[in-house]
Amino acid sequence: MDTVTEHEMAITMALHGGIGIIHANFPTPANQANEVSKVKRYKQGFIISPQLTGKVGGKLLGLVTSRDIDFINESRYKTTKPSEVMVPRDRLITGGEELELPDAYNILEKEKKGKLPIVNSNDELVALIARTDLKKSRDFPMASYDRQGQLLVGAAINTRENSKKTVELLVEAGVDVLIIGSSNGASAYQVNLLKWIKEKYPKVQVIAGNVVSMKQAKLLIDSGADALRNGMGSGSISVGRAQGSAVFQVARYARSRGIPVIADGGIRDVGYITKTIALGASTVMRGRLLAGTNEAPGEYFWGPNGFRLKKYRGMGSIDTMKALLRLFPPLFFF
Questions:
Q1: Domains along the sequence of the chain with CATH
Q2: What is the pLDDT along the chain (334 residues), one digit of tens a residue?
Q3: Which of 44, 266, 281, 316 has its CA 20 to 30 A from that of 122?
């Protein structure tokens, strides 16, 4: 939802063990990809694209950090050479490319360094580890990370033809999972897009949906879905099929196929989460419980009773449709 999750919410969710799904209601696909990049850059783990000479994979010559340039006057920025301020190679503590992340953090702690370059057998720079990320790991031990030690983040996409370009930008930005958003997941538009994604990006996980029946679930699982989103019109600001029976029936079938089910909608408090998981869901998607928080997008306004509020709307609301029509005039909803 565009009133729930952008990069601030996604970062907070991942730090506490969840994953945020960046909404698709942006003016351009590049804006959405930029939100994904902000989440992935928050905690780098192994920084896999460090550059010094401008050539990735080049020999490690030295290291320049913010502390090395703090006292350089701005007027000298363009004339000062990196070699004049950098810590040269012979004074650097480095790690081998086989080094595990916990061991790398131990070296940083022992040597009291802020950065640890990772080099291969040819002394070529392949990664960089920062001490600030060690502090984040200590403060948030339950955070959700990928294999590079970066926070997990997902992104929502629609079923329009231009979504293929959006997918390319999101994958390039490092998205961990894509969610195909549709009021009815069992459509030809979603099936075709799902098959295209799994063919072009087989390593990218895709959550398909929404579905409320075993027949719909079978169609998407057969098309390559890695997980299903369950629920139609069951949210706190929506009307549709009863979520309890939908979760039970879909989860029972999906579990027999080894596919997890995400209950989407109607989660009003922690009690609903417990009941939903008891009915067979693997996890839940939350909207209302997170809307209006400091991390949610949007500006505050004052309500009629003097309370400070933030707008919360469903993606099928008239307000949202009008916003989408302003961005995409010839838009059709599927």
A1: 7-43+144-327 (3.20.20.70), 62-139 (3.10.580.10)
A2: 677 899 999 999 999 999 999 999 899 999 999 999 999 988 765 555 555 555 556 788 888 887 777 778 777 877 888 788 888 888 999 999 888 878 888 898 888 888 888 889 888 888 888 888 778 888 898 999 998 888 999 999 999 878 999 999 999 999 999 999 887 888 999 999 999 999 999 999 999 989 999 999 999 999 999 999 998 865 555 556 678 889 999 999 999 999 999 999 878 888 989 999 999 999 999 888 888 888 888 777 788 888 877 776 655 555 555 555 555 555 444 4
A3: 44
Total count of residues recorded for the chain: 334
